[in-house]
Amino acid sequence: MSERRSFFRIDETIALEFKKVDELAANKSEPEALFSNANSLKLYSELKKIDAENAQFMFQIKELSRPLAEYLHNLNRKIELLGQQLMADQKPQPPSKTIKQVNLSEGGIAFGSSGELKVDDYIALRIVFLPSNAGLILFAKIIRCDSSNTGEFQVAAKFHRITEIQQQLIGQQIMRAQMAEKRRLQGNA
What CA–CA distance (Å, rounded) separates 166 from 155? Predict the structure, then answer.
């Protein structure tokens, strides 16, 4: 199976901003440095990383003491609510040019752009998932850019230097979107 088809793909509406960067920046710098107010996205990603690291501990605690596990779960929910509020401040209000329909996988993204990008160019992406407001900032390499009859360019990019935590966050968003679509289809049946 080709690498571009090794991940599940979804069509999703997200808030997306991108900036062209040179190869040196894409390979050596941190993408958060290229966007203002990136600290809240980084903090939210760190909170998600801690959640992933603590999942096994929570399972073990639940086996030993249900009340303690419930208490810790409630504390975690409080932190999650604070994180979501922090991210809500980052969400663009419609109508916004940053809200776009994209095709997304754990390996890359395809989206429309008003400007042409060249194959092998690098971009820094700021992605905020809607309505959860979870987001991330990362680099990507352009693998395709085709003009369309709408006047936009259809861009496909492969994520570059993506971390496991970033990939997991995208995977979680894809699963949420798939479950929401399944519920929607079952409701219409």
Answer: 21
Residue position matching structure tokens 């900036």: 19
Could you give the CA distance from residue 159 to residue 142 in angstroms, rounded to a whole number?
A: 9
> Where are the chain's structural domains?
3-188
Measure Cα distances from 71 to 49, 59, 61, 62, 178 in Å: 20, 13, 11, 10, 30
Residue type, 27: N
Half-sphere exposure at residue 48, Cβ-oriented, CA atoms within 13 angstroms: 24
pLDDT tens track of the chain, all 189 residues?
Answer: 444 456 788 889 998 999 999 999 999 999 988 887 777 777 777 787 788 788 889 989 999 999 999 999 999 989 888 877 777 666 555 545 688 999 999 999 999 999 999 999 999 999 988 777 778 899 999 999 999 888 899 999 999 999 888 898 899 888 888 888 888 888 876
- Residue 39 vs residues 30, 33, 79, 172: alpha-carbon distances, Å: 12, 9, 17, 21
How many whole angstroms separate alpha carbon 62 and alpha carbon 67? 8
Residues ≥6 apart with Cβ < 8 Å to 182: none
Q: Are the C-beta atoms of 127 and 173 separated by less than 8 Å? A: no
Can you read off the two tokens belonging to residue 55? Answer: 């999942």
Domain 3-188 has CATH 2.60.40.1740: no
